[in-house]
Every structure is written in structure tokens, then in C-alpha cells.
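INTERNAL AUDIT FORM
Audit reference: QA-55
Scope: verify that the stored structure record matches its stored sequence.
Auditor: D.O.
Record contents follow.
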Amino acid sequence: MKKIAILGSTGSIGTQTVDILPSIDAEVVALTTNRRIDLLEEQARALYPKMVCAFDEAAARDLKVKLADTGIRVLSGMDGLTACAAESGADIVVTAVVGMVGLLPTLAAIDAGKDIALANKETLVCAGELVMRAAREKGVKILPVDSEHSAIFQCAQAAHGNPLAKIILTASGGPFFGKTAAEMRSVTREQALAHPNWSMGAKITIDSATMMNKGLELIEAMWLYDMPPEDIEIVIHRESIVHSAVEFADGAMLAQLGLPDMRLPIQYALTYPARVPCKVPRLSLAEAAKLTFYAPDYEAFPALNLARQAAAQKGDRGAVLNGANEAAVGLFLEGRIGFAEIAERVAYALDAIAYRSSVTLDEVLEADRAAREIVLA
């Protein structure tokens, strides 16, 4: 029986992870949330983990009262999050928290020898070199949960030692496919949150609308698969059936297909290398009828160019890109800036903050802090 800690169990990926647990042989030993304590209490009473954490201190105090009759240990803050990752007795840690908050607990879990089911792409975007080096030194697996990176991972298993010549990351194009750069300036919050294919949290949905999400995934793929960014192609695929593909030296291309449902890649990360029945509906190619592919519009979606720039430079650029983007998306969701200003503020931060080619963990955290400060100023 595999022991699992789920960081961010009340979010979109976390709740879908909980949903597939009956399909696998697993024991949940830790659960965390930010402040959705009613749902975390429900999950805790159903799964009876060893410990839980509410990142928000006030929420943790309330949760402690709610779970007082259970004997479950209630923690809070970053210390609580890292304890759930490293000290809960988990074999594998699902990192389903959103944003930079996932970096320290992921590093703590790796240091403790835990495998990582990685749904927190910001961890690799901000500190990919540090995280992948730590994973190699500790001999732990980084198993991708994002549908695109899971697809690449599954296709790469057919390589049998042959290197990948190219990675093809597919993107739905979000709700604004076909719009011009001028039209994007009048986009509203409600329009940006209306994703055509996927049900996700607000921040990731906005990232999909700007296509920054695909840029972050490009950087994540670069670190996960040790692939130069120029060999990672982004292709718009509106149907979200082909989740990504790889190409080999001879031109042969392999792709992973399925309905747009995160439960399959989550389950595969937790059962790898075994495949077990999954409650996800099966794809019918006849019903899918056609699959379409387009080149992305880099003028209408400048976030893609910013991510490619950060990927090419490496160093602290991923941390600056991500920190600035998180801050700018927050401003947009609060109605304080327009949609097009998200990428503009990220670009300003990348220009304003001096470049570091090699970074320590402290310097990654400093780059993140500086980027947010500039965007929010």
C-alpha cells in the first residue's frame, strides 16, 4: 500500500486526487489547504490522515477545534506544509498547491527521500536546476501530473534509450483563440475565466487565457526532460484530445490521447509503472471526429515570448517571470489592471531586475520577492 500526502487537497487537482483514491491501493497520511477548512475537515474525517495543515494561521486555529475529537494533528503555515511533505511518513507527495508556495515543501520532501507527483509547475519554473539536482542526488522520482507533461512522460517510455529530438506541447488556446492583440485589451475577468475545455482554479485559468500557462509548461518541460527550449514546440490544439507528443531522430512522432480529464494523469503518477482501471470516460475517436492544430499567435499572446526568453536565459529568470505573473494575475482578478497589462507588467519586471545566471535557493526567493514588489508598486 502506497502512503500519500496531498498538498493542496481542497483545490482542483487535490479534489480530483481524492476522487481517484478508491481506484488505487493507497493510504493518505497528510492533507493540506490554505483556508478551505470545511472541505478539509470532510476529507480528513473520510480519509483519517496522520496530520493536516491549513496554511492560513486563523483557519488552522478553527480547523483544530473542528477536528479536536479525531486525534489528527493540525499544523499551520509553511512549517506545517513542509512537515506534511517531509514528516508524515508518505512514500509519494502530490504537490497540488498553486504558486511559489510549493517550492519549499517540494524541496523538503525530496530531501526526505519522497517521490514527487508534481502538479505545482512553479517549483520547476522558479528553481528547476536546484530541484532536479536535489532529486538526482536523493534518487527520488519526479512524476508529472500536468496532462501535457504526463503525456510526454508516457510517450518517452517508448524511447528505449533513444533521445527525444523534439517535444510538442499542445495548448487549447484558451477562450481567446483567434483574437487580435488589440481585441485582447478589452477582455473582462468573466471572459478570461471561461475556459472552453478544462475546469481549473482561477489563477491557472487566467494563465491559460494569457497562454502564460503554456509558457510555464515549456520551462517545466525543459527541466523535466533536459531539453533545450528551442526543441520544445507549442501547438494550439482546440479539442484538448492530444495532450502532447514527442518526436524522435527518425521523424517518428508519438502522442498520448484522451479526454480532457485530469484524473488519468493524476492516477498514473500515483500508480506508475502500473496501469489500473480508471473512472475517467473513454475516448472514442469516431466521436471526436477531427483533431485540429495551429501555430500560436505570439503577438496576441506576448506571455509566450516572455516565457521563451526566460527559458533561454535560465538563471533567476524563471523566478522573476513567475513571481511577476502571480502578482499581475492577482491584480487582474481584483479588477485593478486590464488583461493586457498582465504581460506588460511581467515584461517590465524582467527588464528591471538585474539578471543572475546562477542562483541559490535564497536568490530564487529574492528574485521572486523583487518581481512581486515591482509589479505591485
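Auditor finding: record pair retrieved intact. DSSP finds 17 helices and eleven strands in the chain.
Action required: none
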